[in-house]
């Protein structure tokens, strides 16, 4: 659909978002040197985007957004970008490395002039924030398009909640190469979560706690209104089935007890 009055049209595209991990700290340490290196690294990225038939949409600060007609080309470009930038970092070990994070999503966007807007862009930006420094995170829609076409591996990160998006979005980490050294993922202070599996279990446990409180309330209502006929266990079975279906995919149930130790 096209809004003729506003000049906005819609299109299904692959959105590629990238930014620099810890850019503010790099600028504080060496402003001129960091900005100079950012321009050099960005030139590499823009060149690779063009080689893979993508189009640069916008740049701001340390961020970059591009669009691709093909999810395969977008992921190819991201992998080659991270490999090239990792090599560039290794060429000057005296300088602090500059690591980019890349998020890729296939989604419907609104296009006005040369800019793009909408849910598809928001998801790509969120996936970028989930990527490791020097890493790539893609959505489930991209994964389904590329999983049989690329000779690389993927790690499922779970279904992630995204602000202003109704449904959780499946996220996957792209295994760039075992030969590319990257820093460990940044641990958020006070998070208390040692892995993505721990985060998924913590979310599941929160749901179980809420349903447990509701079950206790139903038991009290049952005892007060009809103590001779116990009916509360029927919704209790429904709660148990719900929790069973919501257990995070690929996570060993034994971690539920291990994570409490």
Mind explaining what this structure looks like?
It is a single chain. The chain has helices spanning 23-29, 31-51, 71-91, 119-130, 140-146, 196-225, 233-245, 255-258, and strands spanning 2-3, 8-20, 54-60, 63-68, 100-112, 115-117, 136-139, 153-160, 169-175. The protein is an alpha+beta fold and 261 residues long. Strands 1, 2, 3, 4, 5, 6, 7, 8 and 9 form a nine-stranded mixed β-sheet that branches. The chain starts with a strand and ends with a helix.
Distance between the first and last residues' Cα: 54 Å
Give the mean pLDDT.
82
Residues in helix, % = 40-55%
Order of helices and strands: EEHHEEHEEHEHEEHHH
* Largest beta-sheet details: 9 strands, mixed
Q: What portion of the residues fall into strands of 2 or more residues?
A: 15-25%
In terms of quaternary structure, the protein is single chain
Number of strands: 9
Low-confidence stretches: 181-195
The general outline is elongated
Give me the number of helical elements: 8
Structural class: alpha+beta
**Rg of Cα set:** 23 Å
Record the SSE blueprint.
Elements: E1 2-3, E2 8-20, H1 23-29, H2 31-51, E3 54-60, E4 63-68, H3 71-91, E5 100-112, E6 115-117, H4 119-130, E7 136-139, H5 140-146, E8 153-160, E9 169-175, H6 196-225, H7 233-245, H8 255-258
Helix pairs in contact: 1-2, 2-3, 6-7
């Amino acid at each position: 659909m096209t809004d003729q009055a506003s000049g906005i049209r819609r299109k299904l595209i692959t959105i590629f978002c990238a930014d620099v991990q810890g850019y503010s700290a790099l600028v504080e340490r060496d402003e001129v040197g960091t900005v100079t290196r950012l321009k050099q690294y960005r030139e590499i990225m823009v060149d690779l985007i063009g080689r893979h038939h993508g189009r640069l949409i916008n740049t701001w600060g340390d961020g970059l957004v591009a669009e691709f007609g093909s999810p395969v080309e977008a992921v190819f470009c991201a992998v080659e970008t991270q490999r090239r930038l990792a090599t560039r970092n290794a060429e000057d070990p005296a300088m602090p490395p500059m690591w980019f994070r890349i998020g890729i999503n296939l989604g419907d966007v609104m296009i006005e002039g040369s800019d793009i807007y909408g849910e598809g862009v928001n998801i790509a930006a969120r996936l970028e924030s989930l990527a490791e420094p020097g890493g790539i995170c893609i959505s489930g829609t991209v994964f389904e398009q590329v999983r049989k076409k690329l000779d690389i591996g993927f790690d499922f990160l779970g279904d992630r909640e995204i602000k202003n998006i109704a449904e959780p979005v499946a996220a996957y980490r792209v295994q760039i190469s075992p030969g590319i050294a990257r820093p460990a993922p940044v641990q958020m202070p006070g998070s208390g979560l040692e892995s993505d599996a721990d985060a998924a279990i913590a979310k599941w446990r929160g749901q179980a706690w809420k349903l447990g409180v509701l079950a206790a309330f139903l038991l009290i209502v049952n005892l007060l209104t009809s103590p001779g006929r116990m009916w509360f266990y029927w919704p209790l079975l429904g709660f148990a089935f719900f929790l069973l279906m919501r257990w995070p995919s690929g996570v060993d149930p034994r971690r539920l007890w291990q994570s409490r130790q």
